[in-house]
Request: fold
Amino acid sequence: MPISEEIIKKVAEDTGIKMEELTKLGLLAILREKRRDIMIERLEVLKKYNVNSSKELREKIERGEIKEHPGWEEFILLENLEGTLEIIERDIEVIQESS
Reply:
């Protein structure tokens, strides 16, 4: 069942939080949880290769210290995770600045 505006209004009334603030807090909570999950996944990859950054992983692959497969796939994954983190950070900033 989709959450309707009426349900959100009811929760806002029940909690004494304005609907706009409730929406803002909900969005921030979702984004922060998503950011946390992505950071954990990123750290797991970094730990797997004993590196501190995607740049360091790339350098180790290029020097032959880490096998190209699955090294390059993991490097691409790290870059994608880092890109997603940047987007989430910007979204969080926009929401926080909107109040």
Notes: The first helix runs from residue 5 to 15. The chain is about 80% helix and 0% strand. Helices lie at 5-15, 19-48, 54-62, 68-97.
